[in-house]
């Protein structure tokens, strides 16, 4: 779960620096990997889907971004794979 959250935070930092960013952000931390995908859902809203994997364990979080400048979140929740 920590890897998924780290990737999500990385994606939010990228959005803060580059509000128009959409795409995939892979990251390797320690023995695990994670990926965050940022999708433009219209106007200044974004969906961030981040997943972290260590061995066979995968955790995923979905974040709804209400605005990109400044970044404001509507929700952040762990979801099933």
Q: How would you describe the overall organization of this protein?
A:
The chain has one helix spanning 2-17; strands at residues 23-29, 32-42, 45-54, 57-68, 71-79. The chain has 81 residues and is an alpha+beta fold. A five-stranded antiparallel β-sheet has the order 1-2-3-4-5, covered by helices on one side. A hairpin with a 2-residue loop joins β2 and β3 (45-54). The chain is globular, with a radius of gyration of 12 Å.
Topology:
Blueprint: H1 2-17, E1 23-29, E2 32-42, E3 45-54, E4 57-68, E5 71-79
Instruction: Give the N-terminus to C-terminus distance in angstroms.
Output: 12 Å
User: What gyration radius follows from the Cα positions, in whole Å?
Assistant: 12 Å
By DSSP (H or I, 4+ residues per run), the number of helices equals: 1
- DSSP strand count: 5
Low-confidence stretches: none
Judged by helices, strands and strand pairing, the structural class is alpha+beta
Describe the largest sheet: 5 strands, antiparallel
Question: Mean pLDDT score, rounded?
Answer: 96
Instruction: Give the topology string: H per helix, E per strand.
Output: HEEEEE
Strand content: over 45%
Helix content: 10-25%
């Amino acid at each position: 779960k920590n890897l998924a959250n780290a990737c999500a935070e990385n994606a939010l930092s990228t959005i803060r620096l580059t509000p128009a960013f959409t795409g995939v952000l892979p990251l390797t931390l320690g023995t695990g990997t994670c990926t965050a995908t940022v999708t433009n859902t219209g106007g200044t809203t974004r969906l961030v889907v981040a997943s972290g994997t260590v061995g066979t364990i995968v955790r995923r979080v979905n974040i709804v971004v209400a605005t990109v400048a400044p970044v404001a979140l509507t929700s952040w929740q762990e979801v099933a794979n």
